[in-house]
Amino acid sequence: MVLRKPYRVAYLVSHPIQYQAPLLRYLASDRRLDLVVFFISDFSVRAYHDDGFGVAVKWDVPLTEGYVHKFLATVGPNDPISPFRPWVQLPVRQLKANDFDVLWIHGYSHQACLRAIWSANRLGMKVLLRGESHLRSHPRSDMKSRCKEFLIPKLFNLIHGFLAIGSMNKNYYLHYGVPRERIFDMPYAVDNDFFRSLAENATPNRERLRLELGLKPGRPVILYASKFQSRKRPEVLLDAYQRLSPDGVSEPEPYLIFIGDGENRAGMEERVRKIGWASIRFLGYKNQTELPRYYNLCDVFVLPSEFEPWGLVVNEVMNAGKAIIVSDQVGAAPDLVKDGINGFIVPVDDDRSLADRLCFLVSNPDICKKMGEESLRRIQEWNFDLDRNGFIHALETVVGG
Q1: Is residue 175 part of a domain?
Q2: How confident is the model at residue 141 (pLDDT cuts 50, 70, 90)?
Q3: Domain check: are 11 and 121 in the same one?
């Protein structure tokens, strides 16, 4: 039997991303793949100001180790990154000279990605697209919607394979006329081993952490961990939490912990000061290696976003074996959260429904624990193996065996 030479894959992405680095290392270790990653910007490998968090960020996990990568030469200003900045010199000659089989693009909002799609088609290279889009997006004007309905199918005609991160993403491609046979499952996964092991290692020190935070033993913990932005709807969680008060005045039995930072944090802290309860904590931004100890601490995790392309924090918390509540606008919801099995899906902005589900879980610790166990079981099946298999299947179909 003659083995095929490794698929030569050029991957173009905006910048080193903490969630993608482990996947790229995993793919690079597969002998069937010869992967080279091209980055448009290098801003994330150094300390930078994150607009969403509103604070300086320096990731505490390796972003560029374990795979071949190159930063593209830029023309003009490099930072901040936007759909038109930086302007990079695409490696068109290198793609042709090195006989790449396929160009893999992450998203299409940056002009460099659009230029690369066009260049690859001129070179006769196949193009694979992986993105986060789904149809439950921010409200658009009729004009913008009509433009998308006209332009996106034309763009998608230049793409040979679509790597769907989940059900809602797949439906997005189908909506714009992509045939099912050109869509391949490559689910949005995190490094399960990393988050599971750190969460497990935090168990012996859980009570010490409770003591550090001033949390009394035995009281449940509700956790939010995301940016403080309007679209994330942290204020809806606070509204729901207030409904847990037995009389509208006394603080609820469970604690509510907010992790993260951003433009809405100050206003929420002021609101909590006026409420006067000591059961709410704002812990600020936490880095990747710090988060699992808080996942381990909580009983229920909530992501109430008004729009969320996916929500990889849901994957992370499931690795700690916790019950999950998400809004129906969270991209991960239909794939990772089975209503009544490992958590609940609630209508966005419905603080009453959210409060009802929270009350049920914190009042039934045995059920809450079983839901957490189901979360852990489910997330182990949503992993990098599926990503690799889906990616190889796409290559075999689009490029050939």
Answers
A1: yes
A2: low
A3: yes
| Dihedral sign (CA 330, 336, 339, 341) | negative
pLDDT in tens, 95-110: 887 889 999 999 999 9
DSSP string, 24-36: HHHHHT-TTEEEE
List CB contacts of 186: < 8 A, sequence separation 6 or more: 130, 163, 164, 165, 386, 387, 390, 391, 394
Q: Backbone dihedral region of 73: left (phi > 0), alpha (psi from -120 to 50 degrees) or beta?
A: beta
Give 128's strand partners.
Answer: 104, 161
**What's the total number of domains in the chain?**
2
Sign of the torsion angle spanned by Cα atoms 137, 140, 142, 144:
negative
As to burial, measured by CB atoms within 10 angstroms (0-12 exposed, 13-18 middle, 19+ buried), residue 139 is: exposed
The answer to the question of residue 135 being in a domain is yes
Q: What angle do CA 332, 337, 340 make, to 5 degrees?
A: 155
What pLDDT does 208 receive?
A: 96
259-302 pLDDT, tens per residue? Answer: 999 999 999 999 999 999 999 999 999 999 999 999 999 999 99
Assigned domain for 2 exists: no
Asked whether residue 179 falls in the same domain as residue 212, the answer is no
Q: Residues 198, 126: one domain? A: no
Q: Are residues 389 and 346 in the same domain?
A: no
Residue 275 belongs to domain spanning: 192-380
Residue 89: CATH number of its domain: 3.40.50.2000
The pTM is what? 0.94
d(CA 321, CA 297): 11
